[in-house]
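Question (not urgent): is this output format expected?
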Amino acid sequence: MNQVRYRIRHRTAYTYSGRIDLYHSLAHLRPREDEGQETLAHRIEVIPEPKVRAERRDCFGNITNYFSIEQSHDFLEVIATTTVLRPEHAANLPDSKVAWNDLVVAPSQKDASGVRLANYLLPTPAFPSFASVSGFLAPSLVPGRDTMALVNEVMGRIFNEFDYVPGATETGTPLETVVQQRAGVCQDFSHVMIAALRTIGIPARYVSGYLETQPPPGKAKLQGADASHAWVEAWTPATGWVGFDPTNNLLPTSRHVKICHGRDYFDVQPLKGIFLGTGTQGLHVEVDVERM
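Got this back:
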């Protein structure tokens, strides 16, 4: 099997109008090593230097990094540099061998990694109710349709019926607002798809990662022009977890580098933390995904 090697640089910089005396943060920046993906090198640099650093694995199997800065500062920079190896494979939609209306998943049932599927069937902070997606989903609910065929059609409808508009939403924008305005970004489209699948009993989880982008013909790729990406994985007994990218209407291939998965975005934010200090905060993010 052919493999693709990527070098990824993810820089996050915070500037503060006042002084910050204490900062605690949790980072989800190290790629998972499953489904043939291998991390060859990974380093996280933090400026100013943290007093405390620790690494652990969360309940979903993601590797997380905690750090604490206990000195006064007005600037924070976190740079994650990673080299990852991805297997090349063709996109292939598997047959789940069960109609969506015949699929029955017990909440206590576990996937191959030992995580209870109830985590991927219930409401979460990102979508405390599934009511807002019921009208959108209804046209797809053809009895007897294979479960994976249904999931694939839902992905295509999100791509065709929603507009990709950076700035149209924020991380805390309610799901019902996204559905009403039919606009958002990859995080929003993934949440719409997850909520739609869960409402009919199909386990679905949120995936964070990166997507290798291609510049227009004859144009050089701009440094820092890439971004974090999000997509969805759906589960059936016959297929296990299968990826779907509603932002681009395709099944993930080697161009998708997976970092973490969880119930929703808030489980796998690249960086989340709390600080003690004064003033306002500015944020700047740069991502480069380069094929080596």
